[in-house]
Amino acid sequence: MGTCKLVVVLVLLAQLSAFAYAQGSKTTPPAKSLWQTLDGGAPFIVAHGGFSGLFPDSSSFAYNFATITSVPDLILWCDVQLTKDGMGICFPDIKLDNSSDISRIYPKRDNTYNVNGVKMQGYFPIDFTLKELNKVSLTQGIYSRSPDFDASMLQIQTVDDVSQTQPAGIWLNVQHDAFYTQHNLSMRSFVISASNNAPISHISSPEVKFLQGLAKPFASTQIRLVFRFLDQDLAEPSTNQTYGSLLKNLTFIKTFASGILVPKAYIWPVDASGYLLPHTSLVADAHKIGLEVYAADFANDFTFAYNYSYNPVAEYLSFVDNGDFSVDGVVSDFPITPSEARDCFAHVGKNALGQAKPLVISHEGASGDYPGCTDMAYSKAISDGADVIDCPVQMSQDGVPFCLGSINLMNNTQIGQTQFRTLVQNVNELRPSQGIFSFSLNWADIQGLTPAIYNPWTASLLYRNPKFRNAGKIISLSDFLALAKNTTSLSAVSIKIENAQYLAAKQGLGIVDAVLDALDKAGYNDPSAKKVMIQSSSSSVLKSIKGKKYELVYEVDETIRDADKATITDIKGFADAVVIDKVSVFPKSGGYLVTMTDIVPHLQSFNLSVYVQIFQNEVVSLPFDFFSDPVVEINSYVMGPGVDGVITDFPETAASYKRNLCLKMTKAPPYMSAVQAGALMQQISGAMPPALAPSPVLTVADVSEPPLPPVMTANATAPAAAAPNKTSANGQPKVTASALLSSLIMIFAAVMMF
Ligand SMILES: *[C@@H]1O[C@H](CO)[C@@H](O)[C@H](O)[C@H]1NC(C)=O
Ligand SMILES: *[C@@H]1O[C@H](CO)[C@@H](O)[C@H](O)[C@H]1NC(C)=O
Ligand SMILES: *[C@@H]1O[C@H](CO)[C@@H](O)[C@H](O)[C@H]1NC(C)=O
Ligand SMILES: *[C@@H]1O[C@H](CO)[C@@H](O)[C@H](O)[C@H]1NC(C)=O
Ligand SMILES: *[C@@H]1O[C@H](CO)[C@@H](O)[C@H](O)[C@H]1NC(C)=O
Ligand SMILES: *[C@@H]1O[C@H](CO)[C@@H](O)[C@H](O)[C@H]1NC(C)=O
Ligand SMILES: *[C@@H]1O[C@H](CO)[C@@H](O)[C@H](O)[C@H]1NC(C)=O
Ligand SMILES: *[C@@H]1O[C@H](CO)[C@@H](O)[C@H](O)[C@H]1NC(C)=O
Ligand SMILES: *[C@@H]1O[C@H](CO)[C@@H](O)[C@H](O)[C@H]1NC(C)=O
Ligand SMILES: *[C@@H]1O[C@H](CO)[C@@H](O)[C@H](O)[C@H]1NC(C)=O
């Protein structure tokens, strides 16, 4: 716990963030009266064991990193345990087994003790002196999180060590006073003496007797005593009443505490299917009798209610800015996220004017919430505040252009469970080559298909809005265009054209003409009409459209690190904008960002707009550098390379990002600054993720293509299978869902695959 080591750590961590931590440039929180907290002030943000979502809980890395990346008034949470020699250390559990390497350092020094009536075996702090514990290193105790910092030899911190970092406050949580008392160690004496030496702001405990004993000594101080509620069925050790019954007796709690700390579900309960129920009256009830309420158990990488669409900022806002109440503080493993939520996102109206960049372009509508390209996905994208909604165009056998994410109807519909399943065929020109393709069915039959939500993260057991997984209707391009035309909030529509060569040469379907025709009919060729973006990964498609008033967008369909000058000049000849993937901007390895390429500024220097795809909210889609926070990811693409647009499954997240108040500040606070790609990976001691071969540079050869072939006369190729009879209203034959993925891979494993 030498100061030297601490300083080194601080310097390293400071490098981690582009976050120049401007002293004194405190963000100006909104006027106090905005907050429906007990005292009208902004809610506290409490870093649970520091930034424990990323680094070992209660380590110097965790505490320092939390301080660097969060609000200036951040409170650091410490679970106090006492050593044999009565020293107070911060450690997340009464047993040292899971979050340290103690069993390796002191084999066989485990013991069995009775803790609140339960026999427990393991390594207890009361069996070790502080000096002995100095040889022990902290490790990641939550096995779904990255163990990459376990080799960093992070020592156990004392309460005194934590106060050396000069936090705005320290929250001491005393989970087990009764146990330490049995072993003649006094938590009471420890916290009283600590409060004289460290900036203790809160002391919490789930034990009534312990807090009652502190009420007097702390009566004339600013220190808040907080009663911690555990599971409602558990008995509180000193009163032998369940926490559930104590919850109905808040006036009793008020006799010895100034606040309560509750699991977040006490305030916003979640039903068995993972959806939020209406909030309880707990916060209002507690506030009425003058008790503060703190909510615990926030973590970006644990499942939270589907209502939040995997956006953790939305979850915090429902606790601090819901119109009915605000909790007085939140306890989080990822304190950067409540920092943003409180100081940048709260009290911003849905109609507040956002900044222009980046353009929020939906990906198959709000496909994170509803089956892609359905009427419901599009109306959600519009109400979410998307600037542009997109239609990837497919062609039916009878030549009707419609919107769907894939030419293969297996991907986005339940066609595999209908009589049309016999239309499976192999088409070598398409990727993947096997499927039931849109050109094998007439529009009337396609319209009748049941859409299916896109679930890219089932391997990590993350599902999208299951209640609505088959909701909505597939719509034609002309209906899409009519819908968008009527919607003034949209600045453009994006039409995507793929497989034009194959459709023309082999299916007699002219997709480019069908699109241009639909645009004409819908009045988009009118000079005053809404802007149209036409996107394709085929240069010949874009060349065939050049000269119209549409913005032409070239999609680079491989990961690149740059493009040479001749190639960009070539692209500039047929396109106004370019779509690249996220990894082309921030290459990654083993779940960490490696660097940032120059591709965005390079393309922009040729006056090409750069749109990046595909942004998703699910934690497994995010490199560790973005702290399991999809807003940090978007912000890093905007504040870092300065992308012109983001293509996203969750337009609400990107649209609310553009409205956040911190974008208007002259200097972005640390929690709203771009992360520095590569810095986090450099902090890993020991095995680094494998160095990957860099992505290629895009060349003229990659871009050039023969011109589009003429559309051959229809009916030259018959569908592979005879068209089956029309679907009857009911009684569609079902096949067993053999293709369902359900391998139980941990979230972390899924991240490592990318
Ligand atoms: C510690 O790890 C064991 C085995 O992996 C697990 O059963 C136990 O619940 C963990 N204990 C805590 C306190 O996390
Ligand atoms: C605690 O102290 C009492 C009295 O000094 C003694 O009888 C008891 O054995 C001690 N208990 C432990 C666990 O050391
Ligand atoms: C606590 O209450 C339970 C029943 O509610 C009872 O069985 C038990 O004996 C009580 N324990 C103590 C220590 O009073
Ligand atoms: C509240 O709890 C106290 C202490 O356990 C008890 O004396 C009192 O009767 C309880 N009041 C109610 C209304 O349950
Ligand atoms: C959460 O979503 C479900 C399903 O859409 C809805 O029924 C419920 O009312 C929502 N809960 C809240 C609190 O909005
Ligand atoms: C579409 O489905 C095929 C298998 O039918 C699969 O290989 C492919 O990855 C899917 N594409 C998407 C985007 O889900
Ligand atoms: C567009 O607006 C017009 C006039 O307000 C209305 O008649 C029409 O039904 C609307 N179309 C759509 C697709 O909403
Ligand atoms: C980009 O456009 C600006 C004005 O819109 C023009 O001044 C500049 O020369 C253009 N640069 C290139 C490289 O085309
Ligand atoms: C289909 O092809 C046959 C000859 O192979 C031709 O007689 C018929 O008119 C064609 N039908 C259409 C709709 O083009
Ligand atoms: C289609 O309908 C015809 C006549 O109604 C029937 O003979 C035939 O078996 C049906 N085919 C299929 C694939 O259901």
Automatic annotation (TrEMBL):
The keyword Transferase does not apply. It is an enzyme of class 3 (hydrolase). InterPro entries: GP_PDE_dom (IPR030395), PLC-like_Pdiesterase_TIM-brl (IPR017946). Pfam families: GDPD. Residues 1-22 form the signal peptide. Keywords: Glycerol metabolism, Glycoprotein, Hydrolase, Signal. The keyword Hydrolase applies. GO terms for biological process: glycerol metabolic process; lipid metabolic process. It catalyses: a sn-glycero-3-phosphodiester + H2O = an alcohol + sn-glycerol 3-phosphate + H(+). Its EC number is 3.1.4.46. Gene3D superfamilies: Phosphatidylinositol (PI) phosphodiesterase. GO terms for molecular function: glycerophosphodiester phosphodiesterase activity. It comes from the Eukaryota. Residues 43-342, 358-658 form the GP-PDE domain. PANTHER family: GLYCEROPHOSPHODIESTER PHOSPHODIESTERASE GDPD5-RELATED, GLYCEROPHOSPHORYL DIESTER PHOSPHODIESTERASE. Belongs to the glycerophosphoryl diester phosphodiesterase family. This is glycerophosphodiester phosphodiesterase. It comes from Carnegiea gigantea. The lineage of its organism: Eukaryota, Viridiplantae, Streptophyta, Embryophyta, Tracheophyta.
